[in-house]
Amino acid sequence: MNTFKTSLAILASLVIFSSCGNHKKDKTADQVKPYPVITLSPQTANIYSDYPATIQGIQNIEIRPKIDGYVADIFVDEGASVKKGQLLFRINAPQYEQDVKTTEANIKIAQADVNAARMNVDKVKPLVDGDIVSPYQLESAKYTLESKQGALAQANAALNNAKTNLSYTQIFSPVDGVIGILPYKIGSLVSSTTANPLTTVSNIESIYAYFSINERQGLDFFLAAKGITMQQKLATLPPVNLVLANGNVLPTAGKVETASGLINAQTGSINMRATFPNHDGLVRSGSSAVVRIPRTINSALLVPQKATYQIQGKLFVYVVDKSNKVNSAEITTAASTDDSYVIQKGLKAGDRVVADGISNLREGLEIKPTK
């Protein structure tokens, strides 16, 4: 009997203790937690838009042989910097040396023929003056002289042509630049019809960044720009930046200089070109990068990116009502800064938004707003 009474007393104590514990937990759950809240107001925002770009030097010149022959010497290596007029290749083509020697010999023959024809004219002329021979013979001698002089001129032209062909055995750089790949090695047979060039010399003192914007972006872009003509609008655009493949920004800003006059019917895009100084040769032709175009919005509503969450590709924020209860609201963004979104639709000036710690929130939860 005593054991039964003792068990009842222990059970009653456990029930009372459990009830007290649950009551404490309920009080803890009902506590209103503080969350940072911001009130939206229009402000000036500096935003930017990024466009993938391909890089080309201001000059990409293919070096091709103009004659047939074997590669005898290569005086540069891939990636080397060269100056205008620097010797790059020598083509072994001995037939052109022989052509020069042959035409030089032909010139001597032609010159001798001219001299003989002139002597004949000088011989016939006094005979005609003395009525010893017919004037016809003098005219014939003069025509022969003119023919020989023409043959001499033709031989001289042939010599010039042979020397020109011989000069093609040495290939020089047409500009300052950087050497590309060298697909042909010493001993390779090349000609003017060879598919690949001997190399490419890229002038990368300045570089072109080619990028595209869609038709809608183009309309917004140029409607916002000042000026009447396209060139005037381009001239008023702010400097743009080039973000390299490693995420670094090229130290010197560039300028958007051209926009295509036609919209690509297949892609619906407008091709544009920005020019950037590249004095140290850091960026090479063929690189990939991103053109970053800045823009200023005078009356923008900004929401921190950490105040948003995503569901099925849509962005949401928690809006605080007058009772300090939170409700989710879908938003549409127009652009972004480094850490904020520019709101296009879904919020208005004066709305209060939870700025951080939103992972613990739920619909209708009451919070204590803090700044």
Automatic annotation (TrEMBL):
Pfam families: Beta-barrel_RND (PF25944), BSH_RND (PF25917), HH_MFP_RND (PF25876), RND-MFP_C (PF25967). PANTHER family: ACRA/E-RELATED COMPONENT OF DRUG EFFLUX TRANSPORTER, MULTIDRUG RESISTANCE PROTEIN MEXA. Keywords: Signal. Residues 60-201 form the Multidrug resistance protein MdtA-like barrel-sandwich hybrid domain. Residues 300-359 form the Multidrug resistance protein MdtA-like C-terminal permuted SH3 domain. Residues 103-169 form the Multidrug resistance protein MdtA-like alpha-helical hairpin domain. It comes from Pedobacter cryoconitis. GO terms for molecular function: transmembrane transporter activity. This is Membrane fusion protein (Multidrug efflux system).
